[in-house]
Design goal:
This protein is α/β, with parallel strands linked by helices and about 400 residues long. The chain contains 13 helices and 19 strands. Strands 3, 4, 5, 6, 7, 18 and 19 form a seven-stranded mixed sheet that branches. Strands 10-9-8-13-14-15 form a six-stranded parallel sheet, with helices on both faces. Strands 1-2 form a two-stranded antiparallel ribbon. Helix 5 crosses helix 6 and helix 5 packs across helix 11. The protein starts with a strand and ends with a strand. The model has no long low-confidence stretch (mean pLDDT about 95).
């Protein structure tokens, strides 16, 4: 079968670090390209607990783009393996089910929760993180029956959704509810990421919220807050007019594109104080911030405009940053890392956040189908990358590979 294959060996990584500043197209065209369309074997079931899926749609994520551009920190490299077939936002049809894939059969339409944690890796008893329901923070991403890989799409043993077929463990499967379009269902995974961040840093009605970045994850933060019934004030910082308009239509009270310090003063009534050297620091400010960019600039600004006792959720997957930690102790802030999703406990019951996200889509509490603005054939993957590198020009929100 034809699949998009990602190679990220040390020599290619080094070459692209030098070439990318000249043109990002070196990363996906030419002799040093990190991705190519190749013939690979159709996958077989690793064990009777797995199923084989015919891919219908696979979303293209910002993390896929970072992988292709070789922009991710090497710190995560022990928990990936190459070559691999990327793509972790997957929905499709089961065409083969192993004898121990309880409750699943050919013809079932499913979304794939991509975590390759202890259960998928055949590790028992589970690690402390998995036992707590933190399946995307597993301690065994480089152990067990599979090659290293935190999730489907960055593991050389389990291909992702940029291929017509893939395999998934029974623990990864969620049934697409009747009546939910696959164009909505394929957005379950990014919604689950944002929903987990909101549940971890849940605003109250009197909170003043700032979301930095009006892309898919930022918009889903807004939609998740509104779907959970919180009527707090939400401001989105987004320079793109197209994404800004979409953020406003998704429930944001205000959208800004300029200086965050000034916005914190005008929107929250905070007071800015200018040090002898450096940017102003705001007393007062936003009580909860969700940073989906996580650059040095946005993190520094976030800490300066976050109120005393406030929480900053870092959803963006940036590289090394340099920060002035003064606001952290001066205003007793909390900085919270956000990655993936797990479970939420209510009494003795635990609900998977991935399933909660799927329910929000199925019940219409989150409307997302219009977010899928562009669909591509797999053979047109370079065009898809071009569009993702110029989303404003193409009025693109979410793109996906479509196999039908």
């Amino acid at each position: 079968m034809k699949a998009m294959v990602l190679n990220a060996g040390p020599a290619r990584y080094a070459a692209l670090q030098a070439l990318r500043p000249l043109s990002r197209r070196f990363c996906y065209t030419g002799p040093f390209s990190s991705v190519s369309l190749e013939e690979v074997p159709e996958p077989a079931l690793p064990s009777p607990e797995w199923v084989k899926i015919r891919t219908v749609l696979c979303g293209f994520c910002g993390s896929d783009l970072n992988l292709i551009l070789m922009k991710d920190s090497p710190t995560a490299m022990p928990f990936t393996s190459f070559p691999c077939v990327p793509g972790h936002e997957i929905c499709g049809e089961i065409i083969e089910a192993g004898a121990d894939a309880r409750g699943w059969k050919p013809g079932d339409m499913v979304c794939v929760c991509p975590a390759l944690n202890c259960e998928a890796r055949g590790i028992s008893p589970p690690c402390a993180s998995c036992a707590r329901g933190l399946i995307m923070n597993c301690e065994n991403f480089a152990e067990g029956l599979l090659a290293p890989g935190m999730f489907t799409g960055i593991c050389s043993d389990v291909n992702g959704g940029f291929a017509p077929y893939l395999v998934a463990h029974r623990s990864q499967l969620f049934r697409v509810p009747d009546g939910l379009s696959l164009r909505s269902a394929v957005l379950t995974e990014p919604l689950a990421v944002s929903l987990q961040a909101v549940l971890d840093n849940m605003p109250a009605a009197d909170d003043s919220v700032l979301v930095i970045g009006g892309g898919v994850i930022g918009v889903f933060v807004v939609k998740a807050i509104r779907a959970l019934g919180t009527r707090c004030s939400i401001t989105v910082a987004e320079p793109s007019p197209f994404a800004a308009e979409y953020s406003r239509n998704s429930g944001a009270d205000a959208v800004i594109s300029g200086d965050l310090i000034s916005a914190a003063v005008s929107i929250t009534g905070g007071r800015a104080y200018k040090p002898v050297i450096g940017d102003p620091v705001v007393m007062g400010g936003f009580t909860r911030i969700y940073d989906t960019v996580a650059s040095s600039a946005t993190l520094r600004a976030s800490m300066r405009i976050l109120a005393a006792g406030g929480t900053l959720s870092v959803l963006g997957i940036g590289n090394s940053v340099k920060l002035d930690m003064t606001p952290l102790w001066l205003k007793r802030q909390t900085i919270r890392g956000c990655y993936g999703y797990g479970t939420v406990r209510s009494g003795k019951k635990a609900r998977p956040v991935f399933g909660m996200a799927l329910d929000l889509l199925a019940t219409g509490k989150v409307r997302a189908e219009d977010m899928l603005t562009h669909e591509f054939d797999l053979s047109d993957y370079r065009r898809m990358i071009d569009v993702n590198l110029a989303k404003t020009r193409h009025r693109a929100m979410k793109t996906a590979v479509c196999f039908e």
